[in-house]
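Slack export, channel: ligand-projects

TW: morning all. Re-posting the request from yesterday since it got buried. We need the structure predicted with the small molecule present, not the apo form. The ligand is NAP; the SMILES is in the block with the sequence. No rush, but it would help planning for next week.
GE: picking it up
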Amino acid sequence: MIKPFIIVAHTADGFIAPASAGGQAVPSTVWTSGADKKKFVQLTKNAGVMIMGLTTYKTIGKALPGRVNIVYAPKDTPTIEGVEMTDKAPKDLIAELDGRGFKEVAICGGSTIYTMFMEAGLVDTIYMTVEPRLFGTGMTVFNKPLDVKLNLISVEELSDDVLFLEYRVVR
Ligand SMILES: NC(=O)c1ccc[n+]([C@@H]2O[C@H](COP(=O)([O-])OP(=O)(O)OC[C@H]3O[C@@H](n4cnc5c(N)ncnc54)[C@H](OP(=O)(O)O)[C@@H]3O)[C@@H](O)[C@H]2O)c1
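GE: finished. pasting the full token output, ligand included:
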């Protein structure tokens, strides 16, 4: 059975993005560590498929190589080269990817997409990088009330001051 995992980097005070300046989303690559980027590439390439929202895709600006890139976008969004656009219900998309033979799928944000998949009860694992900075205000990992229990599976020091946590969702 396919295992969907969330992969996210957040500040020590729990934000995945700073408060947006003039409505512009800030790319995570601007403030996350090299160690986190390396982990992201390793885990997403290993899964072979990644899912993200259009806002997050726009902060990256291109399809990431070596992985199937699936982007949630409104129906009228022009097609993007190298990207599969979708508006499917999460459970239908996961079932389709299972049928395509994927063993894992990386759910790569942002907050809207993390929340949609968590609410649908589809997330098996959460990989969280804790970056050594504070934003004070900003975007949280999830944007709706949740009550989900987690088991801590492992804690890794990616570098002197960057932590990497693996949680399993308790069903
Ligand atoms: N630190 C990290 O690890 C990390 C990771 C990823 C992203 N981020 C940050 O998160 C921020 C973006 O998050 P976000 O929540 O604003 O946006 P998002 O989740 O990246 O994308 C939202 C987009 O997805 C579309 N969408 C959502 N559900 C859909 C559905 N069921 N069908 C079709 N389209 C759908 C929305 O369409 P509508 O407009 O129609 O609703 C909207 O265009 C950025 O600042 C980014 O840097 C941080």
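GE: first-pass observations. The longest helix spans residues 34-47. Residues 10 and 16 are 5 Å apart (CA to CA).
TW: perfect, thank you
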